Amino acid sequence: MLCRSILPSLLLAYGSNRMAVPLVRRASAQAGWPGQLCFAVELTGSDLVYFTLSGSSQCPAGSDRRPQCFLPAPGRCYSVCIPAATQKSSRVRAARLHRHLEQKLSQGPLGARCKVLGLLSCSPDRAPEKGFLIQDPQPCPETERSLEELFLDQPELLPAPELCVYEAGEHGELWQSLWALRGTGSKEMLRRARVLAVAEPQLHPAVSHLRSVAVFASLEAACGVLEECTSLIPEAKAVLDLVDKCPKHPKKGEFPVIVIEGLDATGKTTVTQSVKDSLNACLLRSPPACVSEWRKTFDDEPTLIRRAFYALGNYIVASEIARESTKTPVIVDRYWHSTAAYAIATEISGKLQNLPQVHHEVYQWPEDLLRPDLVLLLTVSPEERIQRLQGRGLERTREEVALEANSLFRQKYVLIMKIILCLSVSVLSSCCQGENILPVTGEAEICLLIPEVAG
Ligand SMILES: Nc1ncnc2c1ncn2[C@@H]1O[C@H](COP(=O)(O)OP(=O)(O)OP(=O)(O)O)[C@@H](O)[C@H]1O
Ligand SMILES: Nc1ccn([C@@H]2O[C@H](COP(=O)(O)O)[C@@H](O)[C@H]2O)c(=O)n1
């Protein structure tokens, strides 16, 4: 059953209302205070908390709520943001620095003492900046010293890394001081501002830049990222060389091309193998075998680089599909749908409603990527999936571990997948009979069209 008709009802509608939120540290260089600053902090459990800064010691009516992400006394909090890449060529370095700091902050005594939450700082005129909110429940002078040393040790942040320190005022209000770190033991306070809780914006702050950091719209966009990595990651050059050898605009042959999608352990390998045997088809998978030896390397890289790697894997598979579909039917285990769904579900934290609107460009099939004829999305209950995973005991990617732990993530993955499928091709499901496709508005159903695979 085609399910294009469900599109208008997918997800909550979000307006075009974007936050006017200049970067905090640039505020210090501006005359006066910008209208509104905004940060999002991801709490454990994926809830987001938003706060803004005010230069005034007066509290605007109704905004005296202390943002939940800050510890009550005697706890202390700090934050740091990785400056947004000013040029395309610096985005890889910024992404890797974020990754490096994330690892460093979780290690040693600092990691044992503090809790580190993801922070996003937004501005309409640049990409959101990623950073960290560091909570020290039993304030220890060593924490601030360790943070200063860590940030001063990052050449990318020099000449003066900036650290925000949060402290309660006399009346329980919260203040943020912005410090420029000049060298060991030397720092300068750039400004002090009042921290105010703000309501959730209509649009999740990461949505507007998904296309440039996680879901690439073309071969050129994904190649661009790996080209910037070649001096840092030798495997990037090897992947680009393989892409170069592929025909530029591969066309599908006359045989059908069927993609099987689904979370891990939903039965893709079992189904693809069985369909391959019964149709006497050629079985391909994304990422293709020719890049699989570099998977571990790219899985350890930040989103920007990891997603570009998987995106290029799809273009390599597309050329294999084009070649094989002139000879036999082709079955493909995962394709662009997986690449996009994992990327969006990871980048958009919080609730299902935070996902981009259904007609957002991020769900659109890349114009230059060969399209399949049919996509089957396999789904099983979370309990069944976990049982199957335990039964296998195979090594899993970090993302797969997160998926298992986080049911919200899984729901997001499935919802995104269904949106993409509804927008691109006919969608069938192996086990969704009677299931509402839409957890939010729940209007349409998709039917059971492939039989269960015998155990
Ligand atoms: N229809 C089914 N009924 C019962 N068990 C199944 C069914 N399909 C697959 N399984 C079992 O579930 C486990 C996972 O299946 P499979 O390897 O095919 O999943 P997958 O989606 O390819 O996983 P991954 O993406 O992680 O490789 C296997 O042990 C398989 O035997
Ligand atoms: N087209 C693809 C395929 C895979 N991924 C990423 O790989 C992980 C799942 O791979 P399996 O080997 O378990 O099937 C998952 O973490 C995806 O991020 C991808 O992005 N695009």
List the SSEs and their pairings:
Elements: H1 24-27, E1 39-42, E2 48-54, E3 76-81, H2 91-105, H3 108-113, E4 115-123, E5 126-136, H4 141-152, E6 162-168, E7 174-183, E8 186-198, H5 210-213, H6 219-229, H7 234-245, E9 257-262, H8 268-279, E10 282-285, H9 295-299, H10 303-324, E11 330-333, H11 336-347, E12 374-378, H12 382-392, H13 398-405, H14 407-424, E13 427-429
This protein binds adenosine-5'-triphosphate and ligand L45E5XJ5.
Going by CATH, the homologous superfamily of the largest domain would be P-loop containing nucleotide triphosphate hydrolases
Structural class: alpha/beta
Number of spatially distinct domains: 2
Strand order across the largest sheet: 1-2-8-7-6-3-5-4
Average pLDDT, all residues:
81
CATH architecture name of the largest domain: 3-Layer(aba) Sandwich
Number of helices: 14
CATH class of the largest domain equals Alpha Beta
Q: Share of helix among residues?
A: 25-40%
Shape: elongated
**Low-pLDDT ranges:** 1-35, 426-455
- Oligomeric assembly: single chain
Query: Secondary-structure element order, as H and E?
Result: HEEEHHEEHEEEHHHEHEHHEHEHHHE
- The tally of strands reads 13
Q: Describe the sheet with the most strands.
A: 8 strands, antiparallel, barrel
Bound molecules: adenosine-5'-triphosphate, ligand L45E5XJ5
Radius of gyration: 24 Å
Strand content: 15-25%
